[in-house]
Every structure is written in C-alpha cells, then in structure tokens.
Specification:
412 residues; alpha+beta; Butyryl-Coa Dehydrogenase, subunit A, domain 1; Butyryl-CoA Dehydrogenase, subunit A, domain 2; 3 domains; 13 helices; AcylCo_DH/oxidase_C
C-alpha cells in the first residue's frame, strides 16, 4: 500500500472542500434537511455536473470517472466534514455498484448514465433495514436477512398478467428511500423449496402499490424512510431469475467499499468537530486565560487528535483494501472495512461527546452547530454498528472464537 495520495486525489479533495465551504454552511444544512427531498437538489446536481461525484466509481463508458474506493472515501470525508445531506452514499455507494455488477447490458446503459448525471437518485431497500448484515459487516452474509418462505421480509412473485414481477412486504428503514427516483429492492422469490434472494428495479413514481413515509430521525442530515410494497410492479435486475444471481455475494463484495466510505465520513465529521472545539477553547476565557491553556484540556484534545488520526489511517487502509480485493471475493475487504468502521464510529462518538462537554452549556443547545455532530455520531452508530458487533465479526472471521473454544475443550 502506498500511503501517499496522488495529485489527482489531492485535487478531488481540494476542489470538493472549496465548493462545500461556499455552498454548505451550517445554515445551508439546516435549510436543506427541511426540504421535501431532504437535501439541496441544486447543490447535488452541481456536484454531479462539476465534480462528477455520483459517478466517481462508475466506468467511463457510462459517463463516470472510473475511480476506486479510495477516491470515494476521500469525497465522503469531505462531505462528512460539513454533514452534507445528500444521496451520495445510497446512490453512488450502494445502488450504482449493484447495477454495474448484476444488471444486464441494457439496464447498465439505461440507468448508470442517469445516476452519474445526478438526474436520478437511488436507494437500496432491504428487509427490516438489515444493511450491515447484508453487506457482511456484522455477520456472515448467508441471506437470512432477506427473510424466507412465504412470510417475513419482502416477497416477489412473477406477474400473472404478463412479464415482470410483483413485490409485497415492507422495509422499516431505507436511506433516502422517500425521495429516490429508483429503488433497488432485495426480495425473496421461489417460496420455501427454491427460495433465493433477487434484486428488482422499481420506479416508485410510476408503480402502484408503493407507499413511502419519511421518518423522523435523530440525525436529519441522513434522511430515512419506511417503504411499503403492495403488489408493486418491478423488473428483475439481471436477465434470468432461474440462474439465481448471487445477490448476497454481490452485497458482500460491496461491503468493504461501503464500510470505508462510511468510516471516512465519520472521520471527516470527527475532524471538523475537533477543529471547532479547538477554536472555541482558544477563545473562551476563564480565570483570565483561555481554557485551552489548561493542561487538563490540552490532554483531552491530544487524545481526541490521536483518535481521529488513527481512525483516518484505518479508513484509508480499508479503502485501499477494498480496491485491491479480488473481484471474486470481497470477504476479506469487508472484515477490514468493518474494523475501520468500528474505529471511526468510536472516534466520532468520543470526539462529539467531548466537543459537547468542552463547549460547556452552549454545547447542548439546539442553536449551536456542535449538537449536529453529536446527533450524527449517535445516529451512525445505530445505523452502521454497533461497534462491538463489527469487531466481533472480524474476530469470527479470523477464527479467534473457534481457537478459544478448542482451548477450553482441551482444558476440560
């Protein structure tokens, strides 16, 4: 691994930071989350047109930049710094790679250019919102998260009146599910005897039987929705249902890159929260001197700095591992990504909590910006954690629990 960033990667970071500083201040964030879409659509289109953000990891033949997980992580770090409300993770991190991996040539040619241009946004609908389980980050991706038989999860059956499929079921937690123009739905097909998990493309504004309800969330900068499907028409992603596309495998191979992107977002948020805290303690005076000059405060800030830098190194390594992993097996990258994500989520929680403490009474007020970072930290750990399960999954993959069980059996 070469730890140094290339000139192109530095340029991606610099350009995106400059644009977001101009267009995404705290008041802009507050205004954006209260729009029906939950994000600034004009800014999203600008990011797509000027920087090609939605297409960073999409092949050039579909209009993308053809970059890898490292560039995606760098972009996410910058969006995390400003808590940018955007469909970046759902569209570019989840939906676009799955279409590229499992879609037919026609589907890729039709959908990917629209996603890259910012004209279309996407969301991944999983039963009960089991995102980390489906990505293989908190457990083995054995498909159990998708439900089974004729009950539970989201079910799919061939349409009786022509081509296509019908979906029924619901997902309680879908990132950007209320506003996405395209839903990729993971559904169980084939009943009990020939059950398998397939992905379906659903256009919610065209299909009947689709109800989307935006949820009230702790972190408004990451909108979520409940999606209900009642005999909704959808198209299979791929060409042949009987061939049984390896949807769990595709999601597992995606896990390392998604974990690296979320970890980088958390690092960006933690870094900016720490910067704001340092600025405050250098200006806030007590007993005739800045509180940042007190040794106890210096020690706390030094610990936070180490935590952020450690998490950043882990996130970068996870992004490199995701890009270097063989296409046939992303399990190892998912484990590395899970560990990096655990490190970043823990650092983000610690920094945000200390930021509130060091800001004193104003840190808990609704009007102050530091509470936005605290909410992001708490919400991220609920959505993508918990931290102990991410680490437990890594230990399971390394065989640590099996080795301990063998030693205990020998001792008995």
């Amino acid at each position: 691994m070469d730890a140094a960033l290339s000139d192109e990667q530095h340029e991606i970071r610099r350009t995106l930071r400059e644009l977001l500083l101009k267009r995404c201040g705290p008041e802009d964030v507050r205004a954006a989350v209260r729009t029906p879409a939950g994000h600034d659509d004009a800014l999203w289109r600008l990011l797509a047109e000027r920087l090609g953000l939605p297409g960073l990891a999409v092949e050039p033949r579909y209009g993308g930049a053809g970059c890898g997980p490292t560039e995606m992580a760098l972009a996410c770090e910058e969006t995390g710094r400003v808590l940018l409300p955007s469909p970046l993770l759902a569209t570019a991190g989840l939906v676009a790679p799955l279409i590229a991996a499992l879609g037919t040539r026609t589907q890729r040619a039709e959908l990917l250019p629209q996603l890259v241009s910012g004209e279309l946004t996407g969301a991944l609908v999983l039963p009960d919102g089991h995102l980390t389980a489906a990505l293989g980050l908190t457990g083995a991706n054995d498909g159990l998260w998708a439900g089974g038989g004729r009950a539970g999860g989201i079910q799919a059956r061939p349409a009786g009146d022509g081509p296509g499929w019908r979906l029924y079921g619901e997902s309680a937690q879908v990132l950007d599910g209320h506003s996405a123009g395209l839903l990729l739905v993971a559904a169980h097909a084939g009943g009990y005897a020939r059950g398998r998990t397939l992905l379906f493309a659903l256009w919610p504004r065209r299909a009947r039987g689709v109800t989307r309800t935006r949820l009230t969330t702790l972190d408004e900068t990451r909108p979520q929705a409940r999606v209900e499907l009642r005999d909704a028409a959808a198209d299979l992603l791929g060409s042949d249902a009987d061939a049984g596309a390896d949807v769990p495998g595709a999601l597992a191979r995606l896990g390392g890159g998604v974990a690296a992107a979320v970890a980088a977002e958390a690092v960006g948020a933690a870094d900016r929260a720490l910067e704001r805290t340092v600025e405050y303690v250098c200006s806030r005076e007590q007993f005739g001197r800045p509180i940042g000059s007190f040794q106890a405060v210096k020690h706390r800030l030094a610990d936070l700095y180490v935590a952020v830098q450690t998490a950043r190194s882990a996130a970068y390594y996870a992004a490199w591992a995701a890009g270097a992993a063989p296409a046939a097996d992303g399990t190892g990258a998912a484990v590395v990504g899970g560990l990096a994500l655990a490190q970043a989520l823990e650092a983000q929680r610690t920094v945000a909590g200390e930021a509130v403490q060091l800001h004193g009474g104003i840190g808990v007020t609704w009007e102050h910006d530091v509470q936005l970072y605290f909410k992001r930290a708490a919400s991220d750990e609920l959505l993508f954690g918990p931290v102990h399960r991410l680490r437990e999954r890594a230990a399971e993959s390394a065989g640590l629990f099996a080795a301990r069980a063998e030693r205990e059996a020998v001792a008995l």
